[in-house]
Specification:
Length: 61
């Protein structure tokens, strides 16, 4: 029961803390951030790969 009262106080703004909906949203944003960082790293690697391929192509010409 004590935990229920604490959660109610957090939702009411009486007690500091994160609501469960805020915690859920934060978890979703952290997951999205991780995904975007991974995609960004892949794009950096692809960019470096194609830049090197273009450089090699120009040197052979």
């Amino acid at each position: 029961m004590n935990e229920w009262v604490k959660r109610a106080e957090v939702y009411a703004g009486v007690r500091e803390g994160i609501t469960s909906s805020d915690a859920q949203r934060m978890k979703e944003l952290e997951r999205e951030n991780k995904e975007l960082r991974r995609a960004n790293e892949i794009l950096k690697l692809a960019s470096a790969f194609f830049a090197q391929a273009e450089l090699d192509r120009r040197l052979k010409s």
